Amino acid sequence: MKNKILLVIFAICLISSIVLATIPAEEACGTDNEGINGCQIVEKSSYAQTIGINNSYFGIIAFLALIVLTVSQIKKPTKHKKRFIMIGIALSSIMAVYFLFLQFFVIKAFCKYCLIVDIGSIFSLIALFYYRNHDY
């Protein structure tokens, strides 16, 4: 059950990351009366990239890797894959808290697709702890 829940969360996060990487913010999120939106503000901030690479590309790679690992873990469980999944979830959750902090307190604007990825990452950590006594 845990793996299926994680797969759904990872898939939602992957789709949101793909939207962020491929669709301009004004098209993906729409605009308000002044012609801007939170997605544009967040995407144009200095925090939108890490080492010159758009953060959504890192999300695509990370969630794709987590999906592949989780599917592989379902088919043939190993302790190493379980450990990599746990590390991936921990790292994505740490980054999610950081990005939520930036949106709430630094940028003071919100990107709905970013929020989906961040909240999804935190939900995956919650699912991991909730089902911690269940084997993969």
**Major β-sheet annotation:** 2 strands, antiparallel
User: Please, what is the CATH homologous superfamily?
Assistant: VKOR domain
Q: What is the number of E strands?
A: 2
Which descriptor suits the 3D outline?
elongated
Helix content: over 70%
| Stretches with pLDDT under 50, minimum 5 residues | none
N-C termini distance: 8 Å
The largest beta-sheet arranges its strands as 1-2
CATH architecture: Up-down Bundle
Structural class by sheet pairing and helices: mainly alpha
Number of domains: 1
CATH topology, anyone?
de novo design (two linked rop proteins)
Q: Order of SSEs, N→C?
A: HHHEEHHH
**Hey, roughly how much beta strand do the residues contain?**
under 5%
> How many helices?
6
Determine and state the CATH class.
Answer: Mainly Alpha
> Could you tell me the mean pLDDT?
92
Radius of gyration: 16 Å
What does this structure look like?
- With 136 residues, the chain is an all-alpha fold.
- The protein has a single domain (2-23, 31-130), classed as de novo design (two linked rop proteins) (Up-down Bundle), CATH 1.20.1440.
- It is built from 6 helices and 2 strands.
